[in-house]
Amino acid sequence: MDKSSTTRRTSLAPATPWLGVTVALAGAALLVYGWWKVSGEARVAAQIPYIASSSAPGAALLVIGALLILRRRAPERDRRIDLLMSLLTENSETEAGPSVSGAPEPAPEGFVAVEGATLFHHTNCVLVAGKASHRVDDASLSTKPLVACPLCIQGT
Asked: Above 50 in pLDDT, residue 118?
């Protein structure tokens, strides 16, 4: 991709939501016009040209406008997901330090649960790192049923 196409794309990026709003409004106007013209015709044969020439293109423009509006939000959504993931894993890396080899450290035997929670976790699960937790054994599971953590299940 050459520099001119990159510059052109970035120069249109701020206008994309306004372009989307404009296209969506044009689509809505076509839908209203088509509905108004169709409602004045008693015969179905006389209604079809208005549906074909204004209602169908109006619906397409409305969808395209909505996609242009939502397209602008994708980078913000990706940034938020990255921030949440870094916040979830930050505590476990700062306390234990990252492993030297880069591979995850083996989980110590047993499971833990946070007081009042409904899930039990491996002892090295990032969701319980740095939190006050207690060991879970068969006796405690019989008094309060706990469900396995979905992240812990994926890791095994």
From this structure: yes
